Amino acid sequence: MRYHIDTIPVWDAMKLDGECFLCALKRKTEIGEVEHYLGASVMEPDTRIQVNTKGFCCNHQRMLYALDNRLGHALLLESHVAETRERLEKACKSIKAAAKGASGASLLDKLTGKAPSVNKLMEDAAAALEQLTDTCIICDSINENMGRYLHTFFHLYQNDSEFRKKFESCKGMCIPHAAELLRVAAAELPARALPEFAATICNLETEAFDRMQEDVSWFCRKFDYRYYDEPWKNSRDAVERTVNKLRGWCVGTEPNPKE
Ligand SMILES: [Zn+2]
Ligand SMILES: [Zn+2]
After folding, report:
1. How many CA within 13 A on the CB side of residue 152?
2. Using CB atoms within 10 A of its CB, is residue 181 exposed (0-12), middle (13-18) or buried (19+)?
3. Mean pLDDT over all residues of the chain?
4. Average pLDDT for residues 89-94, to the nearest whole number?
5. Is 239 in contact with 219 (CB distance < 8 Å)?
6. Among 98-102, 105-109, 166-170, which range has the highest average pLDDT?
7. Helix, strand, coil percent content, the chain, rounded in steps of 5
């Protein structure tokens, strides 16, 4: 098998036997990225430029904030906000022009359909503002990494029979990642391999949902006094696992063990 640098993390994530190996990979990448931006390492100049342009989304601002390095966070913000201030200046020009256009079109232009609609103009004005903060360098980097991991996954699926066996007996994936696997499969697998792959995904997901359903029902029942003395079985973390299966990992124990 051709050596591939991403083979190890993909195998490691699969070996965790968790609810979604792709969520484990994504979370590992995410934590690494967040720590990188607030870490001691000096940022490369071109990364710095990208941080200034793209900034960080709400979710990743929250993770940066949670690392309790207020000065590091402020330094990231300082140059990003300076650049955003400049872009705001330009956006304001187009916002004002659009609003003026919305109020100033002549009745004749409006009647003949020559004037752009007020809705469209104000939509453009709102978009000019939104575009200032609709990018995130960490989200972009996660997507890039996940693209590589997915490519490696299909490489292993086709060339490493042990990996394939492990995948076919795993606990399934979260719904968003199962969908992603199907989408990427079209480009990564020969058409004749698609029926078997799709059937595997469907089997894994339906089995996983049977299990979730049983666990979450048992969890609810445990709050009924008649079941007080019954064992918890596999239901103690049923809420967390069910949420994570439905939407991708977002609550409960981290998908990767502490290093
Ligand atoms: Zn997932
Ligand atoms: Zn983000």
Report:
1. 22
2. buried
3. 92
4. 92
5. yes
6. 166-170
7. 75, 0, 25
Task: Write out the two tokens for 51.
Answer: 């941080």
Q: Give the number of residues written for the chain.
A: 259
Question: Which residue type does 13 have?
Answer: A
| Residue 194 confidence (pLDDT) above 90 | yes
Q: For residue 181, what are its two tokens?
A: 């696997």
Give the residue from 8, 248, 33 showing the smallest Cα distance to 149: 8
Whole-number Å distance, alpha carbon 254 to ligand 1 midpoint, is 13
pTM of the model: 0.89
Asked if the model's pLDDT at residue 250 lies above 90, the reply is yes
Q: Is 56 helix (H, G, I), strand (E, B) or coil?
A: coil
Measured in Å, residue 13 CA sits from the centre of ligand 2 at 22
**Ligand 2 centroid – CA 166 distance (Å):** 31
Give the separation between CA 130 and CA 127, rounded to whole angstroms: 5
Whole-number Å distance, alpha carbon 71 to ligand 1 midpoint, is 33
- In angstroms, the CA 255 to CA 31 distance is 12
pLDDT in tens, 3-26: 577 899 999 999 999 999 999 999
Three-state SS for 103-142 is HHCCHHHHHHCCCCCHHHHHHHHHHHHHHHHCCCHHHHHH
pLDDT of residue 40: 65
